[in-house]
Predict the structure.
Amino acid sequence: MTLGFLIWSLIVSLGTTDTETSVDLQPDMPNVCVDRELSMLGLRQPCVQAFTRMVRVWKQGCSGKSWCAGYERRTGYYTAYRQVYSMDLHSVYRCCPGWMRRGQEKGCPHRVCLPDTCFNGGRCAESGDQVCQCSEGFQGSRCQYVAVVALFEFVC
């Protein structure tokens, strides 16, 4: 193996990241959101151009001579290229905010919970649908709401 091939192999292996696996995400997978992304696409567009020129030609049988020179119009063609830009709006599938994936997992099953994710003394939940485990008196996915407790007394 040559040194160039080894360097190329290293670049290819380092070039594969988790962002490339986001192509595999689909909208029917858990915790996958759809974003619309606008990108500019530049293409070379061919443009065929025609030109004419006069070409000196030799003709046979001109006014008693066996050969004589004359001129004829000839058309030539060439292809020129111009840069054309267009805007492309397409769907991109990413993990919804607060969720992530590891490796080649289906969807985004892991919650992202950092120390500043939960409010009002809440802690990151280990399981369940909630991101945060709220302290008493608070509720919401990030413990952002004050829990309303209603007290009823029934007198018979």
